[in-house]
Amino acid sequence: MRIIEPVSPGEYQKYYDLRWKVLRAPWNQPRGSECDARDADSTHLMMIDARDAAVAVGRLHFNSIREAQVRYMAVAVGQQRRGFGSRLLQALEEKAASLGAACIVLDAREVALGFYRKQGYSADGPGHVLYDCISHVRMHKTL
Ligand SMILES: CC(C)(COP(=O)(O)OP(=O)(O)OC[C@H]1O[C@@H](n2cnc3c(N)ncnc32)[C@H](O)[C@@H]1OP(=O)(O)O)[C@@H](O)C(=O)NCCC(=O)NCCS
């Protein structure tokens, strides 16, 4: 497994495809719903296997000069709970620190709270509710 920043159209296709499959398709959301306006000025990381298949993805953008935000963390179904998500999150944190971030915030799906707690994130309070059913919790980690 190795972590890359997607560059080519083919790499970006794999990146967004995994994001859509894990975070949107189970809620019957159309292709394209996995993207937002901040994608253009974000850092994207993707873990790929020996055959260049996408295993894990995640995005980093800045809310201010010192505050970075992680979004769209997704590990392929069948590859979860093998340490890949934590490796990718760590790489996003290293990238954030290298770009000058002092802290990272994120909105964790309630089902993923335990994952982020294990990576050192603290809960700050309720976040948004997606599709009327996916509750989020705002979390932060000081770098
Ligand atoms: C949440 C997610 C990104 C975690 O990635 P992962 O590769 O499965 O997690 P890891 O294997 O790196 O887990 C690291 C630790 O967190 C724990 N963990 C992982 N997922 C967890 C969860 N949903 N709840 C509680 N603990 C969890 C693991 O048991 C592991 O603990 P350990 O180090 O003591 O063994 C991944 O499971 C996923 O894509 N889930 C579906 C989409 C999702 O919910 N994304 C988050 C949106 S905010």
List the keywords.
single chain; 143 residues; alpha+beta; 7 strands; 25% helix; binds coenzyme A
Outline the fold blueprint.
Layout: E1 2-4, H1 9-23, E2 43-48, E3 54-62, E4 67-75, H2 84-98, E5 103-109, H3 113-118, E6 122-130, E7 134-142
Parallel strand pairs: 4-5
Antiparallel strand pairs: 1-2, 2-3, 3-4, 5-7, 6-7
The structure holds coenzyme A.
Coenzyme A is lined by residues 22-23, 73-75, 80-86, 108-109, 111-112, 114-115, 118.
Low-confidence stretches: none
What is the string of helix and strand elements? EHEEEHEHEE
Termini separation (Å)?
Answer: 25 Å
By DSSP, the count of extended strands is: 7
Biggest sheet, open or closed, and with what strands and sense?
7 strands, mixed
Strand ordering within the main sheet: 1-2-3-4-5-7-6
Fraction in beta strands: 35-45%
List the ligand species.
coenzyme A
> How would you describe the shape?
globular
Gyration radius from CA atoms, angstroms: 14 Å
By secondary-structure content and strand pairing, the structural class works out as: alpha+beta
- Oligomeric state: single chain
Mean pLDDT comes to 95
Report helical residue fraction.
25-40%
Number of helices: 3
